[in-house]
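Board notes (copied after class):
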Amino acid sequence: QGDILVVPEEITSQSPFDFMESSGVIHHLEKPAEALASLVKLLRPGAALNLALYSTLARRDTVTPCREAGKTYNVSSDDSVREFRRMLIAMGEQATWASEIIRTEDFASLTGVRDLCLHPQERTFTLPQIGKLLNRVGLRWRRFAPTFSSAVPQLFQQRFGVDAFSKQATLKKWHDFEKENPHTFAAMYQFFVQKSCANGACGTNQEEL
C-alpha cells in the first residue's frame, strides 16, 4: 500500500517488471496521466500492463444521472447514504436509470452505493481519450481482456470482419462498436497495453502478448 505517485523504494528497487495490473485506480485520481506515467516507469521496455477504466458511454445513461442525483447527499454520513438509497428506490418506479441502479450488486451495500454513485473523485473515458492517454505516457494499445459478454466477440467479427482480439481490432473499430452497443463495457474497460520500445530494446518477443 502506498502513494502511486511516490512509489516506495522497496518496490522501485525490484523494477523493472514484466507485467503489472491496475484495476479501478487511475480513474479515481486527480491526474490520471501522471499516475499512469508513474507505473510505466516501473515496466521494462515491451512489458505489459493490464488496465481497467470506466467507460463514459457505458455509464452515461445510468451511473451519470445517479451521480447527478447524489450531489446534495453527504457521502461521509451513513444516514445520508441510506436516505439516498431510499430516494433511488422511490425513483425506480418512474426513472429507468434508477431502476437499473437498484438492480446492481453495488446497491446492496452502503459502500457499494458510495463507490457507484457518490465517489468524490471519478473520471470516465472514451476509447479515443484512452488512445491519447496511452500515447502521452509511452504505451501501445494491444487488445481487450475477454471480460465482456461472450456474444461481443461474435458481434464484433460480424460487424468488422476481424477477430475481436487480433491486431486488426483497433481502438477506432472498438469505439465505433461501442457507439452502436453502448452497454458493452458496463462494468469497465479492461485491456492490455505494452510499454513502447526504442532501438529494438524489446528483442524478439515484443509482439507476443
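Comment from the instructor: Residues 160 and 173 are 8 Å apart (CA to CA). The longest strand covers residues 43-53.
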